[in-house]
Amino acid sequence: MTEPNRADLGKDPARVSGMFDQVAAGYDRTNTAMTVGNDALWRAATTRAVAPKPGERILDLGAGTASSSASLARSGAEVVAADFSPGMLAEGQRRHGGMRNLSFVEADATNLPFGDAEFDAVTMSYALRNVNDPKKALRELFRVTKPGGRLVINEFSTPPGKLFRGAYRFYNAQVLPRVARVAGTNGDAYDYLNESIRDWPDQRALSAWIREAGWTDVAYRNLSFGIVALHRARKPE
Fold first, then answer.
1. Most exposed among 2, 146, 175, 215, judged by the fewest C-beta atoms under 10 Å?
2. Which residues take part in binding S-adenosyl-L-methionine (predicted)?
């Protein structure tokens, strides 16, 4: 039996990728359980924020099992689902490989295998936090986006309400890993998830990182009381 792979806040790419390889099969099921179904609502909000249109080319980076990519591709846009976990991509291809306007690419977020100004829109959901150099990933996303193109980042964040924030942190630390184990997933991976959320900057700090990478019209809105935040920006013309 394969030993569970647990990443840490060093975010070594090989360890993080290996951890996601191991949880790929049960990843979506576990996410639905641990978010009490909110993952579907957050995915719908992200798709609306990206606002994909037929004929556009869109990069979904950190696509995982491609649930978000498939949601974008239903618009008729050409969507590239990119991830550094081959196990996640294989699961995504198994589920959504029949979509003709959806392709799959193994990619490092800090060194994307795409040319400059290839995409009309770029997006990441719950993946920027797992990159060992997120600021470089934001610069790479900027590079591959066309002038006037759109950025949408959906990421776990910091609930602004003190009481709710305390309850949320208790849930992440004490309940979430147990839910993952009941769902048949590597619970140690969700210990890492809690650590990475706790260590992640808040909404204003991430907005500042996005501006530093060159993006303009940077804004965010909280979803589910700030459990996640939807960040939006544009590349200057």
1. 2
2. 65, 83, 108-109, 125
CB within 8 Å of 40: residues ≥ 6 apart: 32
- With 0-12 CB in 10 A as exposed, 13-18 as middle and 19+ as buried, what is 59? buried
Residues of the chain above pLDDT 70, percent:
80
- Alpha carbon 186 to its chain centroid, in Å, reads 19
- 83 annotated ligand binder: yes
Q: Side chain identity at 159, as an amino acid letter?
A: P
Tens digit of pLDDT for each residue in 35-81?
767 788 999 999 999 999 999 999 999 999 999 999 999 999 999 99
The 3-state DSSP class for residue 206 equals helix
Q: How far is the C-alpha of 79 from the C-alpha of 57, rounded, in Å?
A: 6
Query: Could you identify the residue written with the tokens 């002038």?
Result: 147
pTM listed for this prediction: 0.87
Could you tell me how many residues make up the chain? 237
Which helix or strand (DSSP H or E) is residue 13 part of? helix 13-23
* Residue 108 is labelled as binding a ligand: yes
Cα–Cα distance between 41 and 27 in angstroms, integer? 17
Q: According to the annotation, is 109 in a ligand binding site? A: yes
Q: Is the pLDDT of residue 176 over 60?
A: yes
CA separation for the pair 160, 78 (Å, rounded): 37
